[in-house]
Specification:
Blueprint (H helix, E strand, L loop, with lengths): L18 E8 L6 E9 L14 H10 L4 E4 L3 E4 L2 E6 L5 E6 L12 H12 L17 H5 L10 E3 L4 E5 L7 H4 L10 H7 L16 E4 L7 E6 L13 E6 L3 H9 L5 E3 L2 H7 L5 E5 L2 E7 L10 H9 L3 H9 L16 E2 L2 E2 H4 L3 H4 L3 H15 L4 E8 L2 H14 L5 E8 L1 H9 L5 E7 L6 H4 L16 H11 L6 H17 L4 E4 L2 E6 L3 E2 L16 E2 L1
Parallel strand pairs: 2-11, 17-18, 17-19
Antiparallel strand pairs: 1-2, 3-4, 5-6, 6-8, 7-8, 9-10, 10-11, 12-21, 13-21, 14-19, 14-20, 15-16, 22-23
């Protein structure tokens, strides 16, 4: 998922600050101690429309207020959500989910029809969902999205109110992870039809079936609340009563809140990490995410030249960016797929697909590739704009990349740091020369990264295209889908093709460095999903 650029952030948004803080207050009517928390993020909500969201901030809030068939938990496992159990046919292509009797926040039952409606809406080309591709393995999804079939032909059927049967084109072992993600969540049919094009644009124009209900978000403001949902099927397990949310871009503001006792949990920037890394309350959480540089090949055909792309990559010192500029626990990348995310037979995917030259730094070699690329494209110089978010981390990243690339003769870079929503919109519409974006894994499989850079994927904003890469990704999802060893090898080779061709420039793998006071208990960071186990979090 796009993050802040990532956090997915490229979600793409740069989600660089996730702050959880808490305090207790007494209820006036029962005398019971209410549990509340103040949670800060680096950007505001873009949309609460499940079929249209693409970024991590929106997804985090949707995951707090809604729930899918299954839920991600620690150890890359899934547990029951709206579905109390499920079965998979022997051929791996038919998944049957048996739903519990849960409700929307208005008391209306959550049924299998709500899931079918949501999925049909997402693949309907009229919705223009960027996540329609994620449904490609469900029967007829691609034909529907291409406008060749009615959405009613999607291979997901409600058999009564509480049984959902899904027919896949081919076996997909990680489908259980996919249905735990926000793009597979149900949508309350009556709400979508009532609000039409304004559905999901503010707190009231939505339905909620998860632990919390969204309050006070008008569509543009930077503060809102997540209030415990008494209609949630597992409400008894949720200890928190209120989450006071605030979008704050400046890490110094967050740290000041922590130091003054107003916050119990804060994310730290690089300069702050140096000061607090030995503090007993310091914690760092590695993310299954990659920030990367996309070059707009459609707008600037010169970027179709591999030597130009290779020159840009070699000119950027990724280790210095991660260790010196960010200095927040982030690390230099091994490739496009994050490491410590996917393993097979004890071997990490990022290690097996590692192409050292694709993430190396060598300015002298960069200048040689640059000179060769200029000769091949007939260019002598170039003026480019580098787009990214307006957060502190994003600004430091763009300044560093600008300083590195302008060491190539004839290169002029102008930085353009804009609000998160603006950056998302411009990236999606191709209104950029260069953009620093990010992808955060939703589920622990390399395909989560590799799929988005295939030629026709809506998230491939730079329009890089490689037939061999496309063929390998397709093979992993078709011919070799049921052969885990062959499928793994296909993906390893695809990553190597991407990196050798320098389709994008991986910049760094982020981490969240935090200070958290002992009064907050049970906070878990799932590196591959924007989800929290809300039943574990308490404030004392």
């Amino acid at each position: 998922m796009r993050t802040k650029s990532l956090l997915k952030i490229a979600g793409v948004s740069l989600l660089t600050a996730v702050v959880l803080a808490g305090c207790g207050s007494k209820s006036s009517d029962s005398g019971a101690k209410k549990q509340s928390a103040n949670w800060m993020v680096a950007a505001n909500i873009n949309t609460m429309d499940v079929s249209k969201m693409t970024d991590l901030i929106s997804s985090q809030n949707v995951n707090a207020t809604n729930e899918g068939l299954l839920k991600m938990t620690t150890g890359n496992a899934v547990v029951p959500g709206v579905a109390k159990n499920y079965t998979v046919s022997k051929d791996g292509k038919t998944w049957t989910f048996n739903l519990r009797h849960s409700k929307w926040n208005d008391g209306t039952p959550v049924t299998a029809k709500d899931f079918v409606y949501s999925w049909q809406r997402t693949v309907n080309p009229k919705t223009a969902s960027q996540y329609a591709y994620i449904f490609t393995n469900i029967e007829n999804a691609d034909k529907i999205n291409a406008g060749k079939l009615s959405p009613s032909k999607l291979g997901a059927k409600a058999e009564g109110d509480y049984k959902l049967v899904v027919h896949l084109i081919k076996p997909q072992s990680y489908f259980k992870f996919m249905v735990s993600q926000s793009y597979y969540f149900p949508e309350e049919i009556s709400k979508v039809k009532k609000y039409g094009s304004s559905y999901g644009t503010d707190a009231q124009k939505n339905g909620y079936n998860g632990p919390f209900v969204l309050k006070g978000w008008n569509g543009t403001n930077d503060t809102w609340k997540l209030v415990k949902n008494p209609k949630y099927w597992n409400a008894k397990a949720i200890k928190l009563d209120t989450l006071n949310m605030q979008a704050i871009k400046d890490p110094n503001t967050a740290l000041n809140g922590y130091q003054s006792g107003k916050l119990d949990f804060t994310a730290l920037s690089g300069t702050q990490v140096k000061q607090y890394k030995n503090d007993k309350n310091y914690h760092v959480y590695k993310q299954a995410s990659i920030y990367y540089l996309e070059m707009n090949e459609k707008k600037f055909p010169m970027f179709k030249n591999r030597n130009i792309r290779k020159a840009f990559s070699l000119a950027i010192d990724k280790k210095q960016l991660a260790n010196k500029v960010l200095a927040d626990g982030s690390q230099a990348p091994k490739g496009f797929v994050a490491d410590d995310m996917s393993q097979r037979n004890g071997k990490d995917f990022a290690d097996q697909s590692y192409v050292k030259s694709a993430v190396a730094y060598n300015l002298n070699e960069a200048k040689k590739y640059w000179a060769k690329g200029l000769k091949e494209t007939g260019k002598k110089s170039v003026n480019l704009t580098l787009l990214s978010d307006d957060t502190d981390v994003a600004k430091r990243s763009t300044e560093f990349v600008q300083s590195q690339l302008t060491k190539l003769p004839g290169v002029k870079i102008t930085n353009q740091n804009v609000p998160y929503k603006t950056r998302l919109s411009r990236s999606a519409s191709g209104q950029f020369d260069l953009v620093i974006t990010a992808w955060n894994a939703d589920y622990p499989d390399p395909s989560n990264f590799l799929d988005i850079l295939t030629s026709k994927n809506s998230y491939n904003n730079g329009k890089w295209s490689n037939a061999k890469y496309d063929a390998l990704v397709k093979k992993s999802e078709s011919t070799d889908a049921a052969n885990e060893s062959a499928r793994w090898n296909d993906m390893v080779q695809a990553e190597k093709v991407l990196m050798n061709d320098q389709g994008i420039v991986p910049l760094y793998q982020p981490a969240i460095s935090t200070l958290m006071k002992p009064k907050i208990h049970g906070v878990q960071f799932f590196p591959t999903a924007p989800q929290w186990d809300w039943s574990k979090i308490t404030v004392k």
